[in-house]
């Protein structure tokens, strides 16, 4: 009988701990998302001047987005100086300058992307994605090197992609590649957000 009581108490304690953990996690994630918004910085006219110095063709859009997903000092990029982009892309200015520096450093003629701006959570998480704030871009190809095909290629195209990812680590906070997980087997994710992750090695 006493054993049964101990077992019941253990079960109850476990259930309470589980509930607390889940509630606590929600609280932490909610707070993180709130703090993330406070830390956003569009970097004003200095950032736009830097973009101009880099020879980028862009239009200024001011502050865009929503309360949940503000895009500060938004710019629409038509090209990155010497580098063409597959379709114009809207980014928050600080991420745009990072992208332009990166494209110049790797001497890319053309980059292809599958979007930047997207108000959503990180996949498999309730933390807001940096795509929400115009601080991230997903790159699928650089010149003739295609991420989904050539990431582990031993030839020139593979080398180009791996070099591009390494250089991206110098400019962006987070660089995710096919090396990161299956979600990124077809594109590079670059963002200028919090934290630091560099998955440049294949
Ligand atoms: Zn992404």
How do the strands and helices of this protein lay out in sequence?
Layout: H1 2-39, H2 44-53, E1 57-65, E2 70-80, E3 83-92, H3 93-105, E4 110-113, E5 136-142, E6 145-146, H4 147-150, H5 156-171, E7 174-176, E8 188-191, E9 197-198
Parallel strand pairs: 3-4, 7-9
Antiparallel strand pairs: 1-2, 2-3, 4-5, 5-6, 5-8, 7-8
Helix pairs in contact: 2-3, 3-5
Task: Give short descriptive properties of this protein.
nine-stranded mixed β-sheet; binds zinc ion; Muramoyl-pentapeptide Carboxypeptidase, domain 2; alpha+beta; 40% helix; 202 residues; 9 strands
Structure description:
The chain has 202 residues and is an alpha+beta fold. The chain folds into two domains: 1-39; 40-198, 2-Layer Sandwich (Muramoyl-pentapeptide Carboxypeptidase, domain 2). Helices cover 40% and strands 26% of the residues. It has five helices and nine strands; from the N terminus they run ααβββαβββααβββ. The chain has helices spanning 2-39, 44-53, 93-105, 147-150, 156-171; strands spanning 57-65, 70-80, 83-92, 110-113, 136-142, 145-146, 174-176, 188-191, 197-198. Strands 1, 2, 3, 4, 5, 6, 7, 8 and 9 form a nine-stranded mixed sheet that branches. Helix 2 packs parallel to helix 3 and helix 3 packs antiparallel against helix 5 (156-171). The model has no long low-confidence stretch (mean pLDDT 93).
């Amino acid at each position: 009988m006493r054993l049964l009581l101990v077992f019941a108490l253990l079960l109850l304690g476990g259930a309470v701990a589980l509930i607390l953990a889940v509630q606590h996690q929600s609280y932490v994630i909610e707070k993180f998302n709130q703090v993330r918004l406070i830390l956003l910085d569009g970097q004003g006219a200095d950032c736009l001047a830097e973009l101009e110095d880099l020879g980028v063709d862009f239009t200024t859009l001011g502050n865009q987005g929503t309360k949940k997903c503000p895009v500060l000092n938004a710019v629409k990029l038509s090209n990155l100086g010497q580098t063409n982009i597959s379709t114009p892309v809207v980014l928050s200015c600080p991420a745009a300058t990072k992208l332009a520096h990166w494209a110049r450093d790797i001497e890319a003629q053309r980059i292809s992307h599958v979007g930047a701006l997207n108000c959503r959570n990180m996949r498999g998480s309730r933390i807001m994605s940096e795509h929400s704030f115009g601080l991230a871009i997903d790159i699928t190809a650089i010149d003739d090197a295609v991420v989904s095909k050539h990431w582990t290629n031993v030839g020139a195209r593979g080398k180009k992609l791996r070099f591009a990812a390494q250089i991206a680590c110098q400019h962006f906070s987070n660089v995710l590649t096919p090396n990161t997980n299956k979600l990124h087997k077809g594109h590079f994710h670059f963002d200028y957000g919090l934290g630091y992750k560099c998955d440049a090695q294949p």
